[in-house]
Amino acid sequence: MEKEKWWKKSVVYQIYPRSFCDSNGDGIGDINGIRSKLWYLGELGVDVLWLSPVYPSPNADNGYDISDYYGVSPEYGTMEDMEAFIHECKNRGIKIMMDLVVNHTSDEHPWFMEAKKSKDNPYRDYYIWRKGEAGSPPNQMESCFGGSAWEYSEETGEYYLHFYHKKQPDLNWENEAMRKEIWKMMNYWIGMGVGGFRMDVIDVIGKVPDQEIKENGPKLHEYLQEMNRETFGGKGLVTVGECWGADVEDGILYSAPERKELDMIFQFEQMQADQAPGKRKWDLKPLALKQLKQAFAKWQEALEGKGWNSLFWNSHDLPRIVSRWGNDKEYRVESAKMLATTLHGMKGTPYIYQGEEIGMTNYPFSGIGDFADIESVNMYHERKQMGCREEEIMESLCAKARDNARTPMQWDSSHAAGFTEGTPWYKVNPNFTEINAKKALEDKNSIFYYYKKLISLRKEEPVLAHGRFHLLCPEDERVFAYTREQDGRKWLVVCNFYREPAGFAYAAKGKVILSNYKQEPVMQMEGMELRPYEAMICEVIEAKEEQKP
Ligand code: GLC
Ligand code: CA
Fold first, then answer.
1. Which of 51, 107, 166, 200 has most ligand 1 atoms within 8 Å of its beta carbon, as the pocket-test mutant?
2. Which residue among 118, 193, 481, 545 is least crowded, i.e. fewest CB within 10 A of its CB?
């Protein structure tokens, strides 16, 4: 058998540098802050760090608007700090996955500053320019952050395309010179010793604006193959593409090894199980567990033996999972562990977002003044203008705003949760005296140690990393259960998603490997009653005839 890729047993930890740890008291997290917490990440056992952008940026979108791909923002430190960070990670066997934001730059990037000057500027064609139609934008395409995707530029009287904020002009991937600049920049970071790339909204680089094609454009995969050839291919790095618009067929195109594109994709189908059909993320509906199970199972089955997926509940773009689909009150610990079990029991590479491992919750916002994210603020004004009720808008924001994930990491119960000695750039969740890393490390039953166990199981147990997935009881509205099977071994994962007890039956005995409740070492699984948010992973022993394969 071909040697399996190292990242199939890895767990990635995402750091949002602005909110992780501040080393110099200016209230903004920084690289030296991260360096001071490497022992903590080592204790958890993660082996890849996805670093959200630390490049110079005017911060219209918190660093996802880059003005210099080769530098480090002074807010976050110096290039020497970055080098020391890379070096220290290397010593600990931790790889750094850089955020690669190449669908767009900042409008303050020198390329754009040049491009906007005149129609014959050599950089003009690095971006996408069109004449308007009688004083209005070329077409109806919309920005993800609200309003038109076209912005009028005074200097030349043309519009430029921006799928995100108007300070994030889209790059023109048709332009070969521009692509070469990107390859050069990627090779620079590879030379610096980074271990991989997370590719921001990579599914839209093949856009064809005149046909209003955004995701999955005709040349998308051609570009990725070129990127692979010209930069990271064959160098043992790990690459993941963020793809909001991918279906399973696309997932295979991106991640099938023989196509030589990316190692895995980061797609969001499972995160839509509480979104009104055909609507935006702000249009809420209660979690539909059957839909959630279906989404996961579809990807698990479709990619089996063909491609590779990421497993995640959280990121800097998503609200806190324990508040979203768990119970952030009396069952916070149980439900956080249950959600971890569900996710880490599956096949793929799990991602943990900072604070998830201690069960951090959504923020108790009380009014629009509490929100900092451009997406939240724009949505508020847009919906106000549409005549939506204040309470309804606030309900959506509290549930889904990205700000929920961006409050400072809760380290201990001291000033500002130990995140900074100064004034934090953004609000600290007032529950930090109860929920913090120090407390979690002192309690051997904490969510932290549960994650640690899940991470080590993936490294030690081939059935967890490689076993084939099979969904059980797809029609059950309360229990998420499935098996993983490899080389004659079978693991069973059972999770009750609700606070009400739920029945579950499986005709076998199970040796308990991990659970969020105290269990007998071996249990009869024929007629179980699961307690609130109860979750377990069992090795199946003595399966009855009818369930033998
Ligand atoms: C990705 C990032 C998000 C950012 C957007 C534009 O979705 O994760 O934070 O706003 O791309 O770069
Ligand atoms: Ca700082």
1. 200
2. 545
Residue 258 CB neighbours (<10 A): 6
Q: Which domains does the chain have, with CATH numbers?
A: 2-105+176-365+407-454 (3.20.20.80), 110-161 (3.90.400.10), 366-400 (no CATH), 468-541 (2.60.40.1180)
Cβ atoms of residues 174 and 216 within 8 Å: no
Query: Which amino acid belongs to residue 11?
Result: V
DSSP state of 429: P
Mutate to test the pocket of ligand 1, among 99, 102, 201 (most ligand atoms within 8 A of CB): 201
Given the structure tokens 């094609």, which residue do they identify? Answer: 213
- What pLDDT score does 545 carry? 56
Contact (Cβ atoms closer than 8 angstroms) between residue 197 and residue 97: yes
Angstrom distance (rounded) from CA 350 to CA 421? 32
Distance from the alpha carbon of residue 55 to the mean position of ligand 2, in angstroms: 14
pLDDT in tens, 35-82: 999 999 999 999 999 999 999 999 999 999 999 999 999 999 999 999
Question: pLDDT tens digits for 432-451?
Answer: 999 999 999 999 999 999 99
The pLDDT of residue 548 is above 80: no
* pTM score over 0.90: yes
CA distances from 404 to 43, 362, 462 (A): 26, 5, 35
CA angle 200–448–372, rounded 5-degree value: 45
CB of 101 within 6 A of ligand 1: the answer is yes
Active-site hit among 61, 65, 75, 242? 242
Ligand 1 neighbourhood includes 328 CB (under 6 angstroms): no
Rounded to the nearest angstrom, the distance between the alpha carbon of 31 and the centre of ligand 2 is: 8
Round to whole Å and give the CA distance between 144 and 125. Answer: 23
Distance, in Å, from the CA atom of 540 to the CA atom of 542, rounded to the nearest integer, reads 7
Q: Which of 200, 250, 261, 274 is catalytic?
A: 200
Query: What is the distance of C-alpha 307 from the center of its chain?
Result: 18
